[in-house]
Amino acid sequence: MKNDSSFKPAVIYARVSSKKQVTEGSGLDSQNSRCRLYAQARGYDVVATFTDDMTGSKVRRPGMDAMLAYLKQNKAVPHVVLIDDISRLARGIDAHWKLRESIANAGGILESPSIQLADDSDSQLIENMLASTSQHFQQKNREQTISRMKHRLRNGYYVQSRPAAGYKYIKGNGKEIVRDEPIASIVQEALEGFNTGRFGSAGEVRQFLQDQPEFPKPKSGIVTHERTFVLLRNHTYAGMLDARNWNLGILKGNHEPLISYEAFLKNQDLLANKKRVSNRVNIGQDFILRGAVACGDCGNALTACWSKSKTGKKHPYYLCHKKGCVSHRKSIRRDKIEGEFADLLKSLQPTKQLFDIAGKMFKELWDYQGGANSKRIQRLKGQITKIDTDMSQLVDKLINTKNALIVQKIEEKINQMEQNKLAIMQKCENLAKPRRSFNEMFELALTFLSSPCNIWENGSFIDRRNLLKLAFSGRLDYTRENGFSNPKISLPFKALCTYLGTEKAMAHPARFELTTSAFGGQRSIQLSYGCLWNIIPMEAEPNRCIAP
User: Fold this and answer.
1) With 328 labelled, which of 86, 178, 464, 535 sits at a CA distance of 20 to 30 A?
2) How far apart are CA 167 and CA 332, in angstroms?
3) Dist. CA 68–CA 71, nearest whole Å
């Protein structure tokens, strides 16, 4: 520090309200330039500059704290503190005078090219008026901003500064958010997987997101459990806007949803009631069947391990760890059990002829469902009307009651009804216009049904784990002596296997359900489908069901 008596050190403090103003504006530069011109005219030597990019209503700020610390370290030589305008110091009367006192206690002398600051009553009156005006401007600006944001929310527009992962802003009508690929598809797969049971827990969703290189991650590179829960609970992905903090409830958004609102509500139920299996963080690619196969003697899930022989070579085994079980710690070679599982999958492989028949049946059902959607829409609209009527009655009760507990219960009921109404409205929209054609919707499903063995042999680890969940409805029982027994095959494969002829039984043409007019009124709807008169030519299937 100079000891020259003519040396008058000064520091500059500049502030803008947000980081966006730092990158897109010139507020800090203009404040700095004006203060330097003022210092030059007064003969001050600017020795340091301190800046902040946050609201002026707060007293504690990084730049301000750094400046006060600098002033205290050099308190022996008083420094002039230059601010461009009184609003740059603070946006509130209390904050203004607290900072004025802190600067004075640190040895600083506050000056500004916009106003003369002094300790006399007239100067303090003007300073108070300017500080009060600055506070009013900040409050008014906040009110106007909130009002504009509420208006945008009511019109269905997203208002947060940063869109949820999977969306991005586009400039145009209302600055809408649209899908941001490939992140949107990754998030959609995670949400749908949790909804359908592909991912048995939020932990498995987190692991899926962690394994996707395109999914944005923090500097640590780890997708946290907290972020996974936030993603699963985000209304934005269901095409909604969560405006409860604005006392506007849940609103319908203009953006494209990644999942239906009905599926979103189901996910919330799964999270709240913990209706899911626990996450296994140790499922490794070395043992694909771990957790999917149970001991046939005790029913406990088989675990797996590597065993080292005397020669030092490692061997993979599955085994039961249940104490008291006759198979306790009796190992099963990995290649044996996984080889037998591959043979089990081959038994699920339908013939090409049967697969073609199933495809035609699915197509007929698709067309029939499309024709029935208009009636379903009318019924759903009737439910919406009833919900509106019930809500109006509840609002009347809410107005006339003074009991706080009853008021709370009525408000909870109204919120629940509003969510159900939104789900029904979205269902009506989806029924009115399918997003994809039959071929697009069923291509992957039919591919899976036609070649499970191919997926098992050539698919990725995730594809193979999904095959386990989709092909079987529960754990597979396995014993060392008999192998797999009584596998719980999922409905699609069970239906194909039954139709193929692996399960045969005599059935009366009626009594199970009412007969249909088809085939002369001699068969029920269920049995009529089995005849497939218009689908299978006689020469293609000689053993088909023949009407008497």
Assistant:
1) 464
2) 48
3) 5
